[in-house]
Hints:
It comes from Xenoophorus captivus. This is Pre-rRNA processing protein. 66% of the residues lie in helices and 0% in strands. It is mainly alpha-helical. The longest helix has 17 residues. The N and C termini lie far apart (47 Å).
Amino acid sequence: ICAVLAAVTEVIRSQGGKETETEYFAALMTTLEVVESEESQAAVAYLLNLVMKRVPAPVLKSKFSDTTKAFMDVMSKQASSDTSSALRWILSCLATLLRKQDVSVWSYPSTLQAYHGLLSFTVHSKPKVRKAAQQGVCSILRGSDFLFSDDALSHHPATVTTAKFCIKEIEQAGGEALWSFT
Length: 182
């Protein structure tokens, strides 16, 4: 982690940067796409998880598509990996990214696909991955920025999708759903 942070800081400084959260976000996203070892990927994902919480929402909104794609790529590569550190930090990053989006973005199929990606890890075999995904889903459903606006919705647009997913998982595990959503 320290080696990655030092390298990213050096790149930012060499380009005359002021070491802002946005600069770290950009540099770490570029690094995430080029690192190959799982250990380095985990370090970058950890640092991204820290910095993304401080990146201004307009930046995360404008980079939503590219950032989501990069996270989904890492998630698909890491899904069946023996180690899970990068995966759990990427799940947390994806949740942060989704929480910062406007309500209108939730009508796009790509947003729901990313959310379903996060949701699917709530039943992962590894406890730390499961916990990261579950915390991410909860943070999105309860803490998305648009839920705190003056004209806030009564519930998150992904609530019904989440309920349907849970019912399907219960039924597949041998339980019966006591109610259904149409």
